[in-house]
Design brief:
The protein is mainly alpha-helical. The chain has 20 helices and two strands. A two-stranded antiparallel ribbon has the order 1-2.
């Protein structure tokens, strides 16, 4: 991703943490021992102090997951079955992807109410291109076809002006695929869905960041507008099936082989272990703040054990008949894992990620530090809507098609709820990509568990989800007040 820059002042950088020779030798230096906790006990004490100070992070969400697991496991013996575990992961997938995009917007204290219906427009474009063998012109008619291309080209020009080259590339390739009809290929059609989302995000970001319209107003208006566009694309009461396209259908409905599942697990856990251990050793050697090595090893061991057990369960035969075997990790799981790792690295390790947190924490201070706040604000909406395009593909795979109600209703509300329940603040400046994953698990667990219980009214799903979201927002507000009081 191209990182925002500014010509008015030096770019924001992290406070220097390296201990110089003078500081190290000076007994009165405040930084002479600033290398972080030296063992697990010190790290635990530091974590408890941060929690008491209001930095609870994802702790409430994790507690919620444990409570729901205990409640539903006691209420139904099917909840912890192998088959339901796999179904639960595929149910959580669309919400998790949409929530990961919304984390960027929420980090700036903004909101995107149109992400759900935008995912419908993106998915419909993909589905129509596939069904009509790449001939969108014939399928949509000249006025709609030209309007779509015109919007994408105009938004590509906006990204060029603001030097968002990654967005320019996505939109440009998407336009080329549509013009040439190459989007009859399933992989190309998926890319078109994401590129349409990027164009939509550029429009939202331009109206919010440059024109100055509040994001609530812009995205509420587009929430309604994209429903009209979806009707225009598909037609009232119609639906576009995609189950017949093998690549699309595999995403949510088929599984990797057990062998490849274990290979992927070994690569992922081994890569994570090597990266975190080597990073801790190098930072300690350079006298920089770093986590103690024993804590890093313990975390790797716990993550490896938890994911290993989950993988072992998924690799068991979960078929209810003897005629066919159903085993392995659903294809959507590694897709989400790759996206999660990528965005986590961008938010936590890149200069762009520091810019996002800086603008979300204090926009004026970030501007004075030389950050192009308009460009950063525009970029988060681009990311959110691009992720909505990917979420639309996953949801279309799950449903087997795209209808006129696609992305309406609770789609957006559940995605926002997932990010907030996971620990991302509605006030901006605080949150991580893991929040979207943890929150999505909570959101998916409620209907999944309630659906296994007898004599439970559908209204309870909405009541419980609403109460959980209200509780998460209350925890966020109270923790911010406590953190402010402790300063």
């Amino acid at each position: 991703m191209t990182e925002p820059t500014s010509t008015s002042a030096p770019p924001l950088s992290e406070p220097p943490t390296e201990v110089s020779g003078d500081a190290e030798s000076s007994p009165g230096s405040d930084f002479s021992s600033d290398v972080g906790a030296r063992n697990i006990a010190e790290a635990a004490r530091g974590y408890l102090q941060r929690v008491r100070g209001g930095e609870v992070g994802a702790l409430p969400a994790l507690a919620g997951v444990l409570v729901l697991v205990v409640v539903f496991a006691n209420a139904s013996n099917v909840f912890l079955s192998k088959g339901n575990f796999a179904n639960f992961l595929t149910q959580a997938a669309p919400t998790a992807v949409l929530a990961m995009g919304l984390v960027f917007v929420l980090l700036l204290g903004e909101i995107d109410l149109s992400a759900g219906t935008a995912s419908g427009v993106c998915a419909a474009t993909m589905a129509i291109a596939l069904v009509h063998k790449g001939n969108l012109h014939s399928a949509l008619g000249t006025p709609t076809y030209l309007a779509m291309l015109g919007l994408m080209i105009a938004m590509a020009a906006v990204t060029v002006f603001y030097r968002l080259w990654f967005a320019t590339a996505f939109i440009g390739v998407g336009v080329a695929l549509i013009l040439t009809g190459v989007d009859k290929n399933a992989l190309a059609a998926i890319f078109v869905s994401i590129s349409v989302g990027v164009a939509i995000g550029t429009l939202i970001g331009f109206l919010v960041a440059r024109i100055g319209i509040p994001s609530f107003v812009v995205t509420l208006a587009l929430f309604l507008a994209w429903q009209g566009v979806l009707l225009q694309l598909i037609g009232l009461g119609s639906a576009v099936p995609v189950r017949q396209f093998d690549l699309i259908n595999k995403i949510e409905n088929q599984n990797m082989s057990p062998t490849w599942s274990w290979i992927l697990w070994l690569v992922a856990v081994g890569g994570y272990a090597a990266y975190t251990v080597i990073r801790s050793i190098r930072r300690r050697a350079a006298k920089l703040t770093a986590e103690p090595l024993d804590l890093v090893v313990l975390r790797v061991a716990l993550i490896g054990a938890a994911t290993g057990v989950a993988l072992w369960v998924l690799n068991q035969d979960r078929s209810t008949t003897v005629f066919v075997k159903i085993q392995g990790v659903p294809y959507v799981v590694p897709i989400i894992a790759v996206v999660f790792i990528g965005w986590t690295l961008i938010l936590s390790k890149s200069r762009y990620g520091r810019f996002v947190y800086a603008v979300g924490g204090n926009t004026e201070a970030a501007r004075r530090a030389g950050i192009d706040t308009v460009r950063v604000r525009l970029s988060v909406f681009v990311i959110a809507s691009g992720m909505a395009g990917l979420a639309g593909v996953i949801q279309a795979s799950k449903q087997g098609g795209v209808d006129t109600a696609f992305g309406n209703g609770t789609t957006l509300l559940y995605a926002v709820a997932a990010a907030v329940i996971g620990g991302t603040s509605l006030f901006g400046g605080k949150g991580k990509m893991r929040d979207a994953i943890i929150g999505a698990l909570v959101i998916a667990m409620i209907p999944n568990g309630l659906g296994l219980l007898r004599n439970i009214k559908p209204s309870y799903e909405f009541l419980i989800t609403g109460l959980v979201l209200l509780l998460a927002a209350s925890v966020d507000a109270l923790s911010r007040k406590r953190a402010a009081a402790g300063r």
